[in-house]
Design goal:
Number of helices: 4
Oligomer: single chain
Number of strands: 0
Distance between the termini: 40 Å
Helix content: over 70%
Strand content: under 5%
Radius of gyration: 19 Å
Shape: rod-shaped
Structural class: mainly alpha
Largest sheet: none
Order of helices and strands: HHHH
């Protein structure tokens, strides 16, 4: 039942640990997406070079350019 699953994730020690891990993962993903968007905007505005943006994200210039096309 749905209510049992909710209770597990809200009150059971293991369930709470799982939810904390999921929340942390979502938070970290959001930070990474925000960092990508910011660096892409800085490159588009001419404040950073593509090389600098790629370096800050630890990706190749080619990968950074692909990211720019998607945003």
């Amino acid at each position: 039942k749905f209510s049992e699953r909710v209770h597990y994730f809200k009150h059971d020690e293991e369930g709470v640990k799982i939810m904390c891990a999921i929340s942390e993962e979502i938070r970290n993903e959001g930070i990474e997406v925000g960092k990508e968007k910011t660096l892409i905007e800085l490159v588009k505005d001419g404040l950073l070079s593509i090389d600098q943006g790629a370096e800050k994200l630890n990706v190749s210039v080619e990968e950074f350019e692909k990211m720019m096309e998607r945003k």
